[in-house]
Design goal:
Elements: H1 4-18, E1 23-28, H2 39-42, E2 49-55, E3 58-63, E4 66-71, E5 77-82, E6 91-97, E7 101-106, E8 113-118, H3 140-147, H4 154-158, H5 169-179, H6 192-211, E9 252-256, E10 259-263
Antiparallel strand pairs: 1-6, 2-3, 3-4, 4-8, 5-7, 6-7, 9-10
């Protein structure tokens, strides 16, 4: 599943091609995504693109009438190509631009989202999200204060979008390893000092992943069609049973929220 670094990489790839352009036409070939694509989306032809941004894993395309929200779901991709490029299977939505290019949304599993919110009010899906992990609003004191009294495993705690957005499974693995924190430790039993280290580790891991273009696992490719390279830097994710790259101990695995979590029994406490 594309996570925050993959979405940020996609944003940086498509932004220069869309900002300031006008939508010549919007073609919806398949409206049955996670939520149905409304007729309002197809009616956005003639709208000017004012800007692009990201909130959590949502790409926000700000138009004159409102905001188009795109979520890549489990397998979605966005590519900017010439309008003459032949369609591929699962190319569900096209935003045709006034320069002859098209932003093409492809989603084999159809868990992605293309929604429109008219006016200036934020969409309800964004209302209860926590802070952005790379912003100044996110830090160790925030994690410490929010964790008090919580018995949930710290891995599940930092993957909760109400705590902080965009720390998906891969990056939770890697951030906890870098911070030296056992993923099963109760969130409420971690000190402020260790949370400061964890917040810094989350920022470091996500920043490195963005610079590497994301992590290629099964479906993800960047907006230019090239793979992300952060997978070459993974310390623990997908490596249970292999030696720790830091101390040589054999990595073990626990389960959190029905997902296997690899960790080092020596480096993470």
């Amino acid at each position: 599943m594309p996570e925050l670094p993959e979405v940020e990489t996609t944003l940086r790839g498509i932004r220069p091609h869309l900002e300031g352009r006008t939508l010549r036409e919007v073609i919806v070939r398949e409206s049955r995504l996670r939520w149905p694509v409304s007729d309002e989306v197809a009616g956005l032809a003639g709208s000017r693109v004012l800007g692009l941004s990201r909130r959590a894993k949502y790409l926000l395309i700000r138009l004159e009438p409102g905001v188009l929200l795109i979520h890549l779901g489990m397998s979605g991709t966005l590519r900017v190509v010439d309008a003459s490029v032949p369609l591929r299977k699962h190319d569900h939505v096209d935003l045709l631009l006034d320069d002859g290019q098209v932003l093409r949304f492809n989603d084999p599993r159809r868990f992605g989202t293309v929604l429109f919110q008219a006016g200036d009010q934020p969409h309800g899906l964004l209302a209860k999200l926590g802070p952005e992990p790379l912003s100044d609003d996110f830090d160790g004191p925030w994690l410490f204060q929010r964790s008090r009294g919580r018995k949930v495993a710290v891995k599940s705690f930092i993957m909760d979008n109400a705590t902080v957005v965009g720390v998906g499974n891969i990056y939770a693995h890697e951030s906890l390893f870098l911070a030296g924190i056992h993923p099963s430790r109760a969130a409420g039993r971690i000190s402020r000092e260790r949370y400061e280290r964890l917040a810094a580790s989350i920022k470091t891991v996500l920043g490195r992943a963005i610079e590497a273009g994301g992590t290629t696992l099964k479906d993800f490719t960047r907006a230019d069609g090239q793979p992300g390279y952060f997978a070459q830097s993974l310390n623990v994710y997908g490596r249970a049973g292999q030696p720790c790259l830091q101390c040589g101990a054999r990595l073990k695995a626990d389960r959190h929220g029905q997902r296997s979590t690899a960790y080092c029994p020596q480096c993470q406490r």
